[in-house]
Amino acid sequence: MTQHIVELRPGDLLETVLEPVSRMDLIKYSGASGDFNPIHTIDEEAKKAGLPGIIAHGMWTMGNLAKLFTPYYEEGFIQDYQIRFAGMVFLNDIITLQAVVVEESDDEYIDFEVRAVNQHGKPVIKGKIRFKKLKE
Amino acid sequence: MFKDVVGKKSEKIKNIIERGLVKRFAEAIGDPHPIYIDEQAGKASRFGGNIAPPTIPRTFDYGVVEGLNLPKKGLIHGEQTYHYNRPLLVGEEVYCYMELKDYYEKTGKNGLMSFLVVKRYGEDKEGNVIFTEGSTIIINEAVREGMKV
After folding, report:
1. A85 in B contact zone (CB under 8 Å)
2. What is the distance between the alpha carbons of residues A99 and A114, in angstroms, rounded to a whole number?
3. Partner-chain contact B28 A29, CB within 8 Å
4. Closest to A78 (Cβ–Cβ): which among B24, B30, B84?
5. What is the pLDDT along chain B (149 residues), one digit of tens a residue?
6. In chain A, how many domains are there?
7. CATH number of the domain encompassing residue A111
8. Of the candidates B51, B53, B79, which has its C-beta nearest A63's C-beta?
9. What ipTM describes this predicted complex?
10. How does strand B129-139 pair with strand B75-84?
Protein backbone atom coordinates (compact mmCIF):
# COMPACT_ATOMS: atom_id res chain seq x y z
CA MET A 1 0.00 0.00 0.00
CA THR A 2 1.25 3.47 -0.86
CA GLN A 3 2.38 5.55 2.07
CA HIS A 4 0.66 8.73 0.89
CA ILE A 5 -2.54 9.07 -1.10
CA VAL A 6 -1.21 12.27 -2.72
CA GLU A 7 1.54 10.21 -4.39
CA LEU A 8 -0.97 8.10 -6.35
CA ARG A 9 -1.07 8.60 -10.11
CA PRO A 10 -3.90 8.08 -12.64
CA GLY A 11 -4.53 4.35 -13.04
CA ASP A 12 -3.14 3.47 -9.61
CA LEU A 13 -5.30 1.00 -7.69
CA LEU A 14 -6.27 0.63 -4.05
CA GLU A 15 -7.63 -2.88 -3.47
CA THR A 16 -8.75 -5.16 -0.63
CA VAL A 17 -10.38 -8.59 -0.74
CA LEU A 18 -12.93 -9.24 2.03
CA GLU A 19 -13.49 -12.50 3.89
CA PRO A 20 -16.48 -14.48 2.52
CA VAL A 21 -19.73 -12.75 3.55
CA SER A 22 -21.15 -14.39 6.69
CA ARG A 23 -24.52 -14.20 8.35
CA MET A 24 -22.82 -12.73 11.40
CA ASP A 25 -21.48 -9.85 9.25
CA LEU A 26 -25.06 -8.97 8.34
CA ILE A 27 -26.44 -9.49 11.85
CA LYS A 28 -23.79 -7.09 13.16
CA TYR A 29 -24.58 -4.53 10.47
CA SER A 30 -28.31 -4.81 11.20
CA GLY A 31 -27.63 -4.09 14.87
CA ALA A 32 -25.19 -1.23 14.27
CA SER A 33 -27.30 0.46 11.58
CA GLY A 34 -30.77 -0.23 12.94
CA ASP A 35 -31.81 -1.70 9.58
CA PHE A 36 -33.53 -4.88 10.66
CA ASN A 37 -35.18 -5.74 7.34
CA PRO A 38 -35.24 -9.56 7.71
CA ILE A 39 -34.22 -10.24 4.08
CA HIS A 40 -30.68 -9.56 5.30
CA THR A 41 -30.67 -12.08 8.13
CA ILE A 42 -33.51 -14.65 7.95
CA ASP A 43 -33.61 -17.21 5.11
CA GLU A 44 -37.39 -17.71 5.13
CA GLU A 45 -38.04 -13.97 4.86
CA ALA A 46 -35.59 -13.65 1.97
CA LYS A 47 -37.33 -16.53 0.16
CA LYS A 48 -40.74 -14.97 0.80
CA ALA A 49 -39.42 -11.84 -0.88
CA GLY A 50 -38.51 -13.91 -3.94
CA LEU A 51 -34.77 -14.05 -3.26
CA PRO A 52 -32.66 -17.23 -3.42
CA GLY A 53 -31.27 -16.43 0.04
CA ILE A 54 -30.39 -13.59 2.36
CA ILE A 55 -28.60 -10.63 0.79
CA ALA A 56 -26.23 -8.06 2.26
CA HIS A 57 -27.48 -4.54 2.98
CA GLY A 58 -26.35 -2.32 0.10
CA MET A 59 -25.11 0.07 2.78
CA TRP A 60 -22.94 -2.69 4.29
CA THR A 61 -21.07 -2.97 1.02
CA MET A 62 -20.92 0.81 0.59
CA GLY A 63 -19.63 1.18 4.15
CA ASN A 64 -16.94 -1.44 3.53
CA LEU A 65 -15.79 0.17 0.28
CA ALA A 66 -15.02 3.48 2.01
CA LYS A 67 -12.40 1.80 4.19
CA LEU A 68 -9.93 1.84 1.31
CA PHE A 69 -9.55 5.53 2.23
CA THR A 70 -9.45 5.30 6.03
CA PRO A 71 -5.63 4.97 6.24
CA TYR A 72 -5.30 8.39 4.54
CA TYR A 73 -7.26 10.60 6.93
CA GLU A 74 -4.16 12.57 7.86
CA GLU A 75 -4.11 13.84 4.27
CA GLY A 76 -7.79 14.70 3.86
CA PHE A 77 -11.26 13.14 3.82
CA ILE A 78 -13.98 11.77 1.54
CA GLN A 79 -15.80 14.85 0.28
CA ASP A 80 -18.12 13.14 -2.22
CA TYR A 81 -19.18 9.51 -2.35
CA GLN A 82 -21.67 8.39 -5.00
CA ILE A 83 -22.82 4.80 -5.41
CA ARG A 84 -25.22 2.96 -7.67
CA PHE A 85 -26.34 -0.42 -6.37
CA ALA A 86 -25.80 -2.75 -9.32
CA GLY A 87 -26.19 -6.28 -7.98
CA MET A 88 -26.96 -8.36 -4.92
CA VAL A 89 -24.41 -9.73 -2.46
CA PHE A 90 -25.18 -13.24 -1.16
CA LEU A 91 -23.86 -15.33 1.71
CA ASN A 92 -20.31 -16.62 1.11
CA ASP A 93 -19.68 -14.21 -1.75
CA ILE A 94 -16.10 -13.00 -1.91
CA ILE A 95 -16.09 -9.26 -2.45
CA THR A 96 -13.14 -7.29 -3.78
CA LEU A 97 -13.06 -3.54 -3.08
CA GLN A 98 -11.35 -1.36 -5.65
CA ALA A 99 -10.58 2.33 -6.17
CA VAL A 100 -8.72 3.63 -9.23
CA VAL A 101 -7.37 7.15 -9.62
CA VAL A 102 -9.09 8.65 -12.65
CA GLU A 103 -7.49 12.03 -13.10
CA GLU A 104 -4.29 13.84 -12.45
CA SER A 105 -4.78 15.13 -8.92
CA ASP A 106 -4.79 18.87 -8.41
CA ASP A 107 -4.29 20.96 -5.29
CA GLU A 108 -7.86 20.47 -4.09
CA TYR A 109 -8.79 16.82 -4.51
CA ILE A 110 -8.18 13.39 -6.07
CA ASP A 111 -10.96 11.63 -8.00
CA PHE A 112 -11.44 7.87 -7.90
CA GLU A 113 -13.71 5.38 -9.62
CA VAL A 114 -14.74 2.87 -6.99
CA ARG A 115 -16.49 -0.47 -7.06
CA ALA A 116 -17.07 -3.69 -5.23
CA VAL A 117 -16.88 -6.82 -7.39
CA ASN A 118 -18.00 -10.35 -6.54
CA GLN A 119 -16.12 -13.61 -7.22
CA HIS A 120 -17.66 -13.78 -10.70
CA GLY A 121 -16.18 -10.41 -11.63
CA LYS A 122 -19.57 -8.71 -11.51
CA PRO A 123 -19.76 -5.24 -9.92
CA VAL A 124 -22.28 -5.18 -7.07
CA ILE A 125 -21.86 -1.47 -6.36
CA LYS A 126 -20.04 1.15 -8.38
CA GLY A 127 -19.49 4.86 -8.26
CA LYS A 128 -17.09 7.67 -7.49
CA ILE A 129 -15.18 9.14 -4.60
CA ARG A 130 -13.72 12.63 -4.48
CA PHE A 131 -11.01 12.77 -1.80
CA LYS A 132 -10.51 16.31 -0.53
CA LYS A 133 -6.89 17.12 0.22
CA LEU A 134 -6.13 19.13 3.35
CA LYS A 135 -3.05 21.27 3.67
CA GLU A 136 -0.30 20.26 6.09
CA MET B 1 -48.52 8.82 -5.48
CA PHE B 2 -46.07 11.02 -3.58
CA LYS B 3 -46.24 13.94 -6.02
CA ASP B 4 -47.81 16.34 -3.51
CA VAL B 5 -45.16 15.49 -0.93
CA VAL B 6 -42.29 16.72 -3.14
CA GLY B 7 -40.58 19.70 -1.50
CA LYS B 8 -41.85 18.90 1.99
CA LYS B 9 -39.31 18.80 4.81
CA SER B 10 -39.20 17.29 8.27
CA GLU B 11 -38.51 19.21 11.48
CA LYS B 12 -34.87 19.24 12.60
CA ILE B 13 -33.91 16.55 15.09
CA LYS B 14 -30.87 16.73 17.35
CA ASN B 15 -28.57 13.70 16.98
CA ILE B 16 -25.46 13.06 19.04
CA ILE B 17 -22.57 11.21 17.44
CA GLU B 18 -22.17 8.66 20.21
CA ARG B 19 -18.80 7.02 20.75
CA GLY B 20 -20.38 3.59 21.27
CA LEU B 21 -22.39 3.83 18.06
CA VAL B 22 -19.31 4.87 16.07
CA LYS B 23 -17.33 1.92 17.43
CA ARG B 24 -20.10 -0.60 16.69
CA PHE B 25 -20.66 0.85 13.25
CA ALA B 26 -16.94 0.88 12.36
CA GLU B 27 -16.66 -2.74 13.47
CA ALA B 28 -19.79 -3.71 11.50
CA ILE B 29 -18.25 -2.42 8.26
CA GLY B 30 -14.93 -4.13 9.06
CA ASP B 31 -13.13 -0.83 9.61
CA PRO B 32 -12.18 -0.51 13.31
CA HIS B 33 -9.50 2.07 12.54
CA PRO B 34 -7.97 4.04 15.46
CA ILE B 35 -9.15 7.33 13.86
CA TYR B 36 -12.72 6.16 14.64
CA ILE B 37 -12.34 4.38 17.97
CA ASP B 38 -9.07 5.19 19.77
CA GLU B 39 -9.25 8.39 21.83
CA GLN B 40 -5.50 9.00 21.82
CA ALA B 41 -5.27 8.48 18.07
CA GLY B 42 -8.16 10.89 17.64
CA LYS B 43 -6.52 13.58 19.78
CA ALA B 44 -3.25 13.20 17.92
CA SER B 45 -4.98 13.43 14.52
CA ARG B 46 -5.40 16.59 12.46
CA PHE B 47 -9.08 16.66 13.46
CA GLY B 48 -8.26 16.88 17.17
CA GLY B 49 -10.62 14.04 18.00
CA ASN B 50 -12.17 10.87 16.64
CA ILE B 51 -14.24 11.09 13.50
CA ALA B 52 -17.11 8.91 12.22
CA PRO B 53 -17.21 6.71 9.07
CA PRO B 54 -18.74 8.52 6.07
CA THR B 55 -21.76 6.21 5.68
CA ILE B 56 -22.88 6.47 9.34
CA PRO B 57 -25.50 9.22 8.71
CA ARG B 58 -27.80 6.48 7.45
CA THR B 59 -28.36 5.59 11.12
CA PHE B 60 -29.41 9.10 12.25
CA ASP B 61 -32.91 10.34 13.06
CA TYR B 62 -34.17 12.83 10.46
CA GLY B 63 -37.72 13.22 11.70
CA VAL B 64 -40.82 12.59 9.63
CA VAL B 65 -41.96 14.17 6.38
CA GLU B 66 -45.73 14.47 6.49
CA GLY B 67 -47.33 12.18 3.90
CA LEU B 68 -44.18 10.21 3.18
CA ASN B 69 -45.36 6.83 4.43
CA LEU B 70 -43.18 4.11 2.92
CA PRO B 71 -43.75 0.37 3.20
CA LYS B 72 -41.29 -1.49 5.42
CA LYS B 73 -40.64 -4.19 2.84
CA GLY B 74 -40.02 -4.41 -0.88
CA LEU B 75 -38.18 -1.14 -1.39
CA ILE B 76 -35.13 -1.21 -3.64
CA HIS B 77 -32.21 1.05 -2.82
CA GLY B 78 -31.03 2.35 -6.19
CA GLU B 79 -28.46 5.02 -5.46
CA GLN B 80 -26.78 6.66 -2.49
CA THR B 81 -24.63 9.78 -2.34
CA TYR B 82 -22.80 11.75 0.34
CA HIS B 83 -21.28 15.18 0.32
CA TYR B 84 -19.14 16.35 3.23
CA ASN B 85 -17.83 19.81 4.06
CA ARG B 86 -15.82 18.19 6.85
CA PRO B 87 -15.83 14.82 8.66
CA LEU B 88 -18.29 14.23 11.51
CA LEU B 89 -16.69 14.37 14.95
CA VAL B 90 -17.40 11.86 17.69
CA GLY B 91 -19.36 13.51 20.49
CA GLU B 92 -20.75 16.42 18.49
CA GLU B 93 -24.40 17.38 18.09
CA VAL B 94 -25.80 17.30 14.58
CA TYR B 95 -29.18 18.71 13.61
CA CYS B 96 -30.79 16.52 10.96
CA TYR B 97 -33.78 16.81 8.67
CA MET B 98 -34.94 15.37 5.38
CA GLU B 99 -36.80 16.43 2.28
CA LEU B 100 -38.53 14.60 -0.56
CA LYS B 101 -36.64 16.14 -3.49
CA ASP B 102 -38.36 14.37 -6.35
CA TYR B 103 -40.87 11.69 -7.28
CA TYR B 104 -41.37 10.16 -10.71
CA GLU B 105 -42.64 7.00 -12.39
CA LYS B 106 -41.26 4.92 -15.23
CA THR B 107 -42.57 1.86 -17.02
CA GLY B 108 -39.88 -0.76 -17.52
CA LYS B 109 -39.75 -4.48 -18.21
CA ASN B 110 -40.91 -5.18 -14.66
CA GLY B 111 -43.96 -2.93 -14.98
CA LEU B 112 -44.52 0.44 -13.38
CA MET B 113 -41.69 1.62 -11.14
CA SER B 114 -41.82 4.60 -8.78
CA PHE B 115 -38.69 6.54 -7.88
CA LEU B 116 -38.31 8.60 -4.73
CA VAL B 117 -35.36 10.95 -4.33
CA VAL B 118 -34.82 11.78 -0.67
CA LYS B 119 -32.25 14.30 0.54
CA ARG B 120 -31.03 14.36 4.12
CA TYR B 121 -29.09 17.15 5.83
CA GLY B 122 -26.84 17.33 8.88
CA GLU B 123 -26.04 20.78 10.31
CA ASP B 124 -24.09 22.10 13.26
CA LYS B 125 -25.65 24.26 15.99
CA GLU B 126 -25.12 27.42 13.91
CA GLY B 127 -26.89 25.92 10.91
CA ASN B 128 -23.77 25.24 8.84
CA VAL B 129 -24.19 22.16 6.69
CA ILE B 130 -21.76 19.38 7.66
CA PHE B 131 -23.06 16.75 5.24
CA THR B 132 -25.87 15.99 2.83
CA GLU B 133 -27.07 12.53 1.87
CA GLY B 134 -29.08 11.58 -1.21
CA SER B 135 -31.01 8.34 -1.63
CA THR B 136 -32.92 7.05 -4.61
CA ILE B 137 -35.53 4.49 -3.59
CA ILE B 138 -37.43 2.38 -6.11
CA ILE B 139 -40.88 0.93 -5.49
CA ASN B 140 -42.05 -1.77 -7.89
CA GLU B 141 -45.62 -2.52 -8.97
CA ALA B 142 -46.21 -5.44 -6.58
CA VAL B 143 -45.34 -3.27 -3.60
CA ARG B 144 -47.47 -0.40 -4.91
CA GLU B 145 -50.47 -2.73 -5.14
CA GLY B 146 -49.86 -3.80 -1.55
CA MET B 147 -50.02 -0.12 -0.55
CA LYS B 148 -53.41 0.26 -2.31
CA VAL B 149 -52.54 3.60 -3.88
Report:
1. yes
2. 4
3. yes
4. B84
5. 799 999 999 999 999 999 999 999 999 999 999 999 999 999 999 999 999 999 999 999 999 999 998 877 778 899 999 999 999 999 999 999 999 999 999 987 778 889 999 999 999 999 999 999 999 999 876 666 665 54
6. 1
7. 3.10.129.10
8. B53
9. 0.95
10. antiparallel
